[in-house]
């Protein structure tokens, strides 16, 4: 038998399906949220590769976050307005992952020097010999995470997604920020701070 095709052609008309079987336009805010979450997971995968090259011990946490983002996507793809009990059992999202992120944030924050200025998140990325790629990639993840959260909040406010999903993304951006600082510290890379330009 021939291998299954990767393309289905079911979205050629500009519509796609939710897990509950609804057909919605691809521009629907639900698919915007799903796309942003998928992009975030891909960015975290890239940051994980850079961090693995440097031997960082938090790479396992990043992989776990990617798995949790799959669960976030399942919850988003199951609008509460059309979900049946069987759907809800499979796609509910608890507060436990939020609390786990908070524990991780506290653990890394205790090891970091106090923050006294705005940190510039880029610049280090292109310095291939600087050892700053992990930190810069994590800062990029943080920015993508903020966008994903902005896409998800309206769904939560409309009663279409679990509030814990928005909470998770909110804590995740804090975790990624702290982790970016931690990576820079562990690699002996000085953080670049904002300096007001001369008038």
TrEMBL record:
Pfam families: Cob_adeno_trans (PF01923). Residues 6-183 form the Cobalamin adenosyltransferase-like domain. It catalyses: cob(I)alamin-[corrinoid adenosyltransferase] + ATP = apo-[corrinoid adenosyltransferase] + adenosylcob(III)alamin + triphosphate. InterPro entries: CblAdoTrfase-like, CblAdoTrfase-like_sf, PduO-typ. GO terms for molecular function: ATP binding; corrinoid adenosyltransferase activity. The keyword ATP-binding applies. GO terms for biological process: cobalamin metabolic process. The keyword S-adenosyl-L-methionine does not apply. Homotrimer. Belongs to the Cob(I)alamin adenosyltransferase family. Converts cob(I)alamin to adenosylcobalamin (adenosylcob(III)alamin), a coenzyme for methylmalonyl-CoA mutase, therefore participates in the final step of the vitamin B12 conversion. Generates adenosylcobalamin (AdoCbl) and directly delivers the cofactor to MUT in a transfer that is stimulated by ATP-binding to MMAB and gated by MMAA. PANTHER family: CORRINOID ADENOSYLTRANSFERASE, CORRINOID ADENOSYLTRANSFERASE MMAB. This is Corrinoid adenosyltransferase MMAB. The gene is Mmab.
């Amino acid at each position: 038998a021939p291998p299954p095709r990767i393309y289905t052609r079911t979205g050629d008309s500009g519509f796609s399906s939710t897990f509950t079987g609804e057909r919605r336009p691809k521009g629907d805010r639900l698919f915007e949220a799903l796309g942003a979450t998928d992009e975030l997971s891909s960015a975290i995968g890239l940051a994980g590769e850079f961090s693995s090259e440097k031997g960082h011990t938090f790479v396992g946490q990043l992989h776990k976050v990617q798995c949790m983002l799959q669960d976030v996507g399942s919850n988003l793809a199951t609008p509460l307005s059309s979900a049946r009990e069987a759907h809800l059992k499979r796609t509910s999202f608890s507060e436990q992952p939020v609390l786990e992120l908070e524990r991780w944030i506290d653990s890394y924050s205790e090891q970091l020097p106090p923050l006294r200025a705005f940190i510039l998140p880029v610049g280090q990325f292109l310095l291939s010999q600087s050892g700053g790629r992990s930190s810069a990639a994590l800062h990029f993840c943080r920015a993508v995470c903020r966008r994903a959260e902005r896409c998800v909040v309206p769904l939560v406010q409309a009663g279409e997604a679990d509030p814990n999903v928005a909470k998770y993304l909110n804590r995740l951006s804090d975790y990624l920020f702290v982790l970016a600082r931690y990576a820079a510290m562990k690699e002996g890379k000085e953080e670049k701070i904002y300096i007001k330009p001369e008038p």
